[in-house]
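User: Let's play a game. I give you a shape written as C-alpha cells, and you guess the letters that built it. Ready? Here's round one.
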C-alpha cells in the first residue's frame, strides 16, 4: 500500500507523526542538560563539601559558616557557654574576618581579626552568656561577620532556651 506521501505503510504498524518526531529530537538535549546539571551538582559538592556551601560560593559569598544555625537547647542563666563554628574561605585569596556584630547582647565572637587562607578553614569562637534576667525566655541571636573582600552579608544564628531561675524548695 502507498499513502499520499509516497512512503509505504505496513498494516498494523503505528504511524509516527511530525510532533512525535520533534519530541524525540528534543529529548536528546533535555537528557544532555539533565546529565550536565547532575555532573555540575556532583562536582560542586566535591569541590565545596556540600550543595549549600557550593551555592554560597556561586552567589559570591566570601565565607561559609558551619553550622549556619545552632540550637543550644536549655541554658542556665548566668553561665557562659563557649561554642565553636567552622568558617570556610570560598575565595581564591586570603579573607580576613575583621569584626562581628550580634543582634543579641548575649552572643559575642572571640579571636578576631582572623585571616583564613584561600580555600582554607578556621575555627571561630563565640560565647553565649544568658543573663539572670533572661530566665524563662527563648534567646535568638544572628551574628554578622565583616570581611575585607566584597561579599554578601555573612550571617549565622544561635538559638537557646534559658532555664527558669526559680529557687528550689526543700521539704520540711
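Assistant: Ready! My guess for every position:
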Amino acid at each position: 500500500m502507498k499513502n499520499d506521501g509516497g512512503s509505504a505503510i505496513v498494516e498494523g504498524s503505528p504511524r509516527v507523526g511530525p510532533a512525535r518526531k520533534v519530541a524525540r529530537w528534543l529529548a536528546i538535549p533535555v537528557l544532555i542538560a539533565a546529565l550536565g546539571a547532575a555532573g555540575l551538582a556532583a562536582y560542586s559538592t566535591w569541590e565545596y563539601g556540600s550543595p549549600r556551601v557550593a551555592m554560597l560560593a556561586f552567589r559570591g559569598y566570601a565565607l561559609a559558616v558551619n553550622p549556619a544555625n545552632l540550637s543550644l537547647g536549655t541554658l542556665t542563666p548566668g553561665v557562659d557557654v563557649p561554642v565553636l563554628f567552622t568558617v570556610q574561605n570560598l575565595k581564591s585569596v586570603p579573607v580576613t574576618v575583621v569584626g562581628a556584630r550580634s543582634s543579641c547582647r548575649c552572643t559575642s565572637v572571640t579571636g578576631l581579626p582572623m585571616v583564613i587562607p584561600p580555600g582554607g578553614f578556621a575555627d571561630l569562637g563565640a560565647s553565649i552568656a544568658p543573663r539572670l534576667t533572661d530566665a524563662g525566655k527563648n534567646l535568638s541571636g544572628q551574628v554578622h561577620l565583616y570581611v575585607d573582600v566584597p561579599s554578601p552579608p555573612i550571617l549565622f544564628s544561635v538559638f537557646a532556651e534559658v532555664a527558669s531561675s526559680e529557687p528550689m524548695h526543700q521539704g520540711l
